[in-house]
Amino acid sequence: MYIERNTIRLALALAGAGRTLAAIHRIASANRYTPPKFHSVAFDDETNELTLVKTIDSNNSHVWISLNHDKSEIYGSSMDNGRLSSYDAATLELTGIVQTSGACLGQNSAFNVATRTEPYYVISGSYGSRNGCAMSIAVTDNGSFDDMSQSWRYEAVSSAHGLAIQEVNGTELLYTADMGANVIWVHAIDKSGNVEELQRAELEGAGLKPRHLIIHPQGTYAYVTLEATNSLLALKLDEAGLVDEGGESSQFQVLEEGTSNANYWSAGVSLSVNKRYLWFTTRGRAGTSGLISCFLLDEHGSVVSKMFTLETGTSNTISSSVTAAPWSDEHAILTDAPGAYIEVWKLDEPLEATDGDVLEYATAKENPEAVRMSNLVDASLRAPEDRAMRCEHHEDGNPAHKLYEAYLHWAANGMTRCETIGYAARASSAMEEEGCWQLGPYIIETTLILIAPAFMAASIYMILGRIILLTDGERHAMIRKKWLTMTFVAGDVLSLLLQSSAFVYVFDATLMILVLGWMNWFHPGEIGLLLRGGPAGKNGLELMYKTGRSKIDDQSSAWREDV
């Protein structure tokens, strides 16, 4: 039985290394969002059918899952609460829990990878807007979590996203793709689970955002996905396993010429069983289909060519993880979230053998009906599992959604009427003779004209809260979601009291000015790119200087990481 590595971010492959002649393969996935679930899916490589076998509760929602050295244990990371969970791979029963601590106290766990030599450890990386960190976790004899061994920080601006492990000269090396610092870190892992920094390799070019990476089994190359430029970076490694900073370093663009770089952000990378085909995925922003590409490598790991880039069935997603199948050189599995989307791809239309029996292919084809997990499970699971679909399709009967929708409808229509009546009362009051003003129109205008903006402003807080919820973006919010409404309402009440005392004080506008000032000073590159596609700046003054200058080419623009 197989379980491929790659959930709704990643699915796993249980048991059986290498290829097999069996027609049925098992794929496991874990929910990125609530409710926390594990799904077991069967893939028939003869009929190309995907079938849901079962769905069970998991201890947590997992952004990433991986396997230990012998595929007997599954390790799950969580972005929601920083909890890592271990499960028996055969039964999916919970075997251990570890909370991020030490240098990672209060941080999430966005990624994990297990060492391959005894004694065994699991390395967890925390991803966010700042203070990227990692920790090594000791495991018991059966592979379940024991306790943290060591934790460490990278840099204040670090955002550790992808991890990879490779044994070099008898020592396991940890490679970290740091999206925030724009570097690749190399650490040595000793027998006690402690790490020692060996290298901080800065990438050539600002704001590349290295997201995921894998190491060629021969230790010759590190293959890195560059989210900002939508390209594959092949970094030459020296005999010690370090990045050869004076050696070969090549970028390979996945987008076709003339395609807008701003519509895409690259994601995952995986290597086939024969180590000759490298799969690469790219997420599409709203309204743009994601992409899957495949590169041909030579026997030493050098990139020979990009064989193809094809559209996937996903759009406006946050994952697009890809895993080369362990049963075949030709298959790969793509999973995505939101929506629990699974596609199985197979290389197609062989051209010619490059050397030996390794073929180059012109394209690939997906299974005829890619499986969206929410179409296979019952309605009680489907509604909360797919948050994006829940926003678009409100016929699912979700009471919270209907209440939210009703409030927005009432705010938009009811408050418009309030404004109309209020200004009509003001006009009526203005037409009265001087000194003969009536109290009624005055009360109506002061009440209805002022009350409408308050409820409209409240709808903004609700929309902001929904955006934070749907994008899992609370770590980027200046105010925690549970305090959001309370903070703004308290500010509005204070503002109303001050205005009634002849003070001029508008809480919402003041906060907006502060936020805009803070963002423009500390994140000028992000604001510049979002507003006009301009190059990243060093400070707010530089951003002001660049205003009105010509736009840069789409191909060099970068976008802010959403997840």
Automatic annotation (TrEMBL):
It is found in: Membrane. One of its GO terms (molecular function) is 6-phosphogluconolactonase activity. This is Uncharacterized protein. Pfam families: Lactonase, RTA1. It comes from the Eukaryota. It comes from Parascedosporium putredinis. It is a multi-pass membrane protein. Gene3D superfamilies: YVTN repeat-like/Quinoprotein amine dehydrogenase. The keyword Lipid metabolism does not apply. Keywords: Membrane, Transmembrane, Transmembrane helix. One of its GO terms (cellular component) is membrane. Belongs to the cycloisomerase 2 family. The chain crosses the membrane at residues 448-470, 482-498.
